[in-house]
Amino acid sequence: MKKLLIVLFISSVALVSCKKDDKELSKANSILKATLKDLPQDSGINSEGDINNDNNTIVFGANKPVTFPLEVVIDLTLSEGAKSEPVSGTRIEFKKDEATRISVKAEDGTARVWEVSIVEQLDPEPQLVNNMFQDWYKVTAESGFEYYQPGKDANSIWATPNLGTSFLQMVPVSPIDVDGKKAAQIMTIGGPDIAPIIAGAMYTGKFDLSMYDPKDPSKAAVFGTPFFGMPKGIKFTFKYKPGPKNYKGSTELPYPDKCHLYAILENRNVSPKVQIAKAEYSGSKEYSDFVTMDLTFNYTSTDRPTHITVVLTSSINGDLFEGAIGSVLVAKEATMIYE
What we know:
This protein is mainly beta. It has helices spanning 8-16, 162-165; strands at 31-37, 50-52, 57-62, 70-78, 83-85, 90-94, 100-105, 111-120, 136-140, 146-150, 158-159, 173-178, 181-190, 197-199, 201-207, 221-223, 225-226, 233-241, 247-248, 251-252, 259-267, 274-283, 287-296, 298-299, 307-313, 322-323, 328-337.
């Protein structure tokens, strides 16, 4: 879906050596997907839960007041071999400001308790949390290598490929100081032979290693965050400098690198999900000073949004091993525009 995250392949290389023996019982006890069924008509509740593996929570947003207590059926997709209590397909009760607990037990018996809740999100003109990119938190890799991620903590709605590249003791996304405030520096950097071009990117969503698949490492990238607004557009303030030479693998290309900034509104309460609107900019033009672009959403559906995906990347075709080492995108904000 998205043109980025080549670095997920780096994660696959680092993790293949850690594959468990076929005879070893799995320790995986994650909830990979959670869906509510039998919701009241026009309830305004997201049927797809927002899963946070770092703090074992699942949140179903609601854009209307909810009548509690509420009993609905929850369907769960679990790690291979894991079992839950209550089991998938069970009717559970939600109470206001109180989480419902679901225990997931791995094949080896390791248990993990998840807190599941419905949260009212009633702001008619919501902004993304940390839309000005001022909050960053420190992460220390197992090797001791330290880097920063956007947000106050691991519950952030913003993600990057930094977890993948941290195995190499380098990261393509980091905070920098600009006039006494923070900004996000997103760079295209060089990598090993398996991924010679590593495109930096910052996006709403999660980098979830519990969803890692050696055949498709990009599954570790979970795009989008709950969002109920219907903005007219999105404002990006940024500057950009493409790297000197654009490559695909080891082949130099006859055209320059491009940055790509975009936002997509979706309704994920239906299957298949519906793309409601998109706003985007891509270009190779160098902006040495910060510019502000107001991008208009092109609405192609009258559905109400349940999720938004916002992406900022320094190389538009990074997923194709294409980009210019040294391309730098520095972003100050991603702000919703309303009437």
